[in-house]
Specification:
By secondary structure, this protein is of the alpha/beta class. The chain has 19 helices and 14 strands. Helix content is 47%, strand content 17%.
């Protein structure tokens, strides 16, 4: 696979571009993301689904700019897919030929099942593991759904329901009751689905979740994997549907979404009436990431290897030059955790988070040695994106921020109280990482000491003096029920 790959997604409302760069076999990061609100399907639904000249030209003009961006990054491969607007248009071949002749760009029109599958594999691979979940992507012309269990997609559905379609057919003429009847008739396809988690994909869902995130003063400014309860979404949808433009602004909806947010909210509201949803998860990924992953993982059944995290691997590839030391620190932190976690009352599930923090702690040093902790904290908070919960991101970032320093401050613990474990657990994990770093301050090639834990005392035994380690450990802010002894 090419090192740099561009993906263009031509939708009914917007066209989107993403340029990805691989850093190792399955690790990647985003170089560029661009969007143009071309409204390709504008006025099509009132004209037997035929694309209109003005909308086609707008789209071609934006695609020209996208190709300039792709060229600037020297991407070796461009994958271009089109969804509902083109697959339903009787005159789609006219548009496809014009793009091919004018831009030398080949468009692949994908059917609804494929679109649903691509969104599903993006969620399955790049969100924390979900069981009994349904992804939903409300586009301009259609809505795609996929059943997700672990990393498997068991069923896909594509329904001719979309924001622009509902707007132009019903809401522009204020036929809300007819819109509801139409939506409900289309949603009969999901009557027998038994799911408890709804994974929201696409611009409509992200706009709603972003507003909820801001209104609840959520402590982490990250929309991907943002999770909340069903009743919060249900109540917010009522507010959106009842709001005028001024009220939509106060709710946190951007003005460029005013005309399509209500049709999207109405579709979502009717979906929630049909399903017994308990939990909402917002996905920052969708069809574009699915297209990229289907190419990247084509020899792996569209799945990452077991226990593999692509964001973690990217951070290690790009920001940890001393990988041997990171691995050594990771091994030691896990060893100390295994010896002490029962005594300290730490749930075993936090072993993975401590191990990840140990590996990522050195990342900030590649930016600036004297502000290592600050940069490690920032890198984890911003770039540890995929496959982890917000709770994990916050904890791992916190451990990096306070490593080899004092225990987390009360103001920090208070700010992130919603996402961090209890204070005793957070402090204990922070101390274990700081202790691991201090014991390796002399940078040995291998762990050159033995650890024995008995009655609350961690004994460090070595044939060497370990004077630097002793000094470093003595400087740490200790926790009450754990002592060290050389």
């Amino acid at each position: 696979m090419a090192k740099r790959v561009a993906v263009i997604d031509i939708g009914s409302s917007s066209i989107r571009l993403a340029v990805y760069e691989k850093t190792s076999r399955f690790a990647f990061h985003l170089l560029n993301e661009s969007k143009s609100r071309v409204r390709l399907s504008q006025n099509a639904y009132q004209n037997n689904n035929n694309l209109q000249e003005e909308a086609m030209q707008r789209t071609i003009d934006s695609l020209k700019d996208f190709l300039t961006i792709i060229s600037s990054y020297k991407a070796r491969k461009t994958l271009c897919v089109a969804t509902s607007a083109l697959r339903e248009a009787p005159n789609k071949q006219e548009f496809i030929l014009r793009v091919r002749e004018e831009l030398k760009l080949n468009i692949k029109v994908i059917d609804g099942q494929r679109e649903a599958y691509l969104g599903g594999i993006a969620c399955a691979n790049l969100l924390p593991t979900q069981h009994n979940a349904l992804s939903i992507d409300i586009g301009g012309g259609s809505t795609e759904l996929a059943l997700i269990n672990d990393k498997n997609i068991s069923k896909t559905l594509s329904i001719n329901l979309g924001t622009i379609r509902i707007k132009e057919l019903f809401l522009d003429s204020k036929n809300t009751d007819e819109a509801i009847a139409y939506i409900d008739s289309k949603l009969q396809m999901i009557d027998n689905l038994d799911v408890d988690t709804l994974v929201g994909v696409g611009g409509t869902f992200r706009a709603i979740s972003t507003a909820i995130l801001k209104n609840t003063k959520y402590p982490l400014h990250k929309i991907h994997a943002f999770s909340y309860k069903e009743n919060e979404l249900r109540e917010f949808l009522v507010s959106v549907l009842d709001a005028n433009e001024k009220e939509l602004l106060s709710l946190g909806i951007r003005s460029d979404r005013f005309d399509i947010i209500k049709p999207g909210a109405l579709i979502l509201q009717r979906v929630l009436k049909k399903l017994l949803i308990k939990k909402i998860i917002t996905s920052g990924v969708g069809v574009r990431e699915g297209v990229f992953l289907s190419d990247l993982l084509r020899g792996s059944k569209d799945k990452f290897p077991t226990h593999y995290n692509t964001s973690m691997r990217y951070l290690l590839d790009a920001h940890v030059s001393e990988k041997k030391f990171a691995n050594l620190l990771n091994s030691l932190a896990k060893k100390i955790f295994d010896l002490t976690h029962k005594h300290l009352g730490i749930d075993k599930k936090y072993r993975k988070d401590l191990a990840m923090a140990a590996k990522l702690y050195p990342s900030g040093g590649d930016v600036h040695f004297y502000s290592k902790n600050k940069h490690s904290y920032y890198l984890v908070q911003s770039a540890l994106e995929y496959g982890v919960t917000h709770n994990q991101i916050t904890l791992i970032a916190t451990l990096c921020k306070y490593a080899k320093k004092k225990l987390p401050s009360s103001s920090h613990l208070q700010k992130y109280a919603l996402l961090l474990p209890d204070t005793n657990t957070t402090n204990a994990l922070s101390y274990l990482l700081s202790l691991s770093i201090s014991l390796l301050v002399h940078r040995p090639r291998n762990i050159d000491f033995e650890l024995v834990f008995c009655e609350g005392i961690l004994k460090i035994k070595s044939s060497k003096n370990l004077c630097l380690s002793k000094e470093a450990v003595e400087k740490l802010e200790v926790i009450e029920n754990l002592k060290t002894e050389f």
